[in-house]
Amino acid sequence: NAGVMQNPRHLVRRRGQEARLRCSPMKGHSHVYWYRQLPEEGLKFMVYLQKENIIDESGMPKERFSAEFPKEGPSILRIQQVVRGDSAAYFCASSPLGYTEAFFGQGTRLTVV
Amino acid sequence: QQQVKQSPQSLIVQKGGISIINCAYENTAFDYFPWYQQFPGKGPALLIAIRPDVSEKKEGRFTISFNKSAKQFSLHIMDSQPGDSATYFCAAVGSGSRLTFGEGTQLTVNP
């Protein structure tokens, strides 16, 4: 059973470009969470999704950030018009329906130059 | 309140010693308390977790102690090894299944 798969592992974008981060949850998991980790800091919740539904997006910045988890395919975290402050590690986690144990992917390290 | 406060920020222990990391929370709706271990460049990995209906849980060298009335919980690593050197995060989960993390403790175990 493969773990949570995130790609790309590393992503470099110039200021103003778009960043797309992908997350495939563990098999059988229908809940996906995105977290952001700034250098030398803890993990901050961004958004919680189930298939085709955003359950909680209270941690998402109001502008430029969006997330989706379509019926088919991976969950996508999209950052439009990136700025240097978006440079961080973005982690995806998944959990089974109705269970609180969450498993994390290896993360995508975004660098904005 | 959604905060989880973790201390110390960094910890240096000699090989064979006991590492102790503490966390405190305010939201009484939290009902699941996991600890994660993170190595540089890797994602957090679930280490051990506890629910508030028990006061202690032990798995190998790792023990969680939980004090519901004080709203505090701690991780004890017995016989600490250099391979335990990592960043440890406590977390809490309430309704909505989202994890609220502490700020992390960077543990260094000297050989």
With helices defined by DSSP (H or I, 4 residues minimum), what is the helix count of chain B? 0
- The number of strands of chain B is 11
- Mind summarizing the main beta sheet of chain B? 6 strands, mixed
End-to-end distance of chain A, in Å?
A: 36 Å
User: What structural category characterises the helix and strand content of chain B?
Assistant: mainly beta
The SSE order of chain A reads EEEEEEEEEEE
Query: Helical percent range of chain A?
Result: under 10%
Residue share in helix of chain B: under 10%
What is the global morphology of chain B? globular
Helix-strand topology string of chain B: EEEEEEEEEEE
The share of residues in extended strands of chain A comes to over 45%
Low-confidence region ranges of chain B? none
In angstroms, what is the radius of gyration of chain B?
A: 13 Å
Anisotropy-based shape of chain A: globular
Distance between the terminal alpha carbons of chain B, to the nearest Å? 40 Å
Give the helix/strand layout.
The complex is a heterodimer of chains A (113) and B (111).
Chain A: E1 5-7, E2 10-13, E3 19-24, E4 29-37, E5 43-50, E6 53-56, E7 65-68, E8 75-79, E9 88-96, E10 103-104, E11 108-112
Chain B: E1 4-7, E2 10-14, E3 19-25, E4 33-38, E5 45-50, E6 56-59, E7 62-67, E8 72-77, E9 86-93, E10 99-101, E11 105-110
Parallel strand pairs in B: 2-11
Antiparallel strand pairs in B: 1-3, 3-8, 4-5, 4-9, 6-7, 7-8, 9-10, 9-11
